[in-house]
Amino acid sequence: MSDKHEEWLKQADYDMDTADVMQNSGRYFYAVFMSHLSIEKALKGLYHKSFNEVPPKTHNLLYLLEKIEKKPEQELEKFIVKLNTASVATRYPDDMAKLQAVYTEEVTNNILNKSKELLKWIKTQF
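Above: the chain sequence. Below: its structure as tokens.
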């Protein structure tokens, strides 16, 4: 079996570290974007580990979870919905000033903390 899933996880960790750097530099909505990217890569690693095939080319975290047939506890599941929605706005911003108003330091801190908790859960599924 390929160890490609390990590369996905390595990149997921790197992206979460990048989210921290963005947070610390005040680039809050980019921190949210990188958090989503980290979780996406971790789920794709889990997909690869589970099926030994290339994961679907999607950014949709809910779709990936459904395909993997894993379900976190309710609080984390609600968070995934929130992070999934945030991804669209941060990936393709219509109005940067509005995003900056929404993703304050406090909001982003909460998202990063929950993302790290979610990443930890995903790693337990391997």
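The chain has one domain: 4-124.
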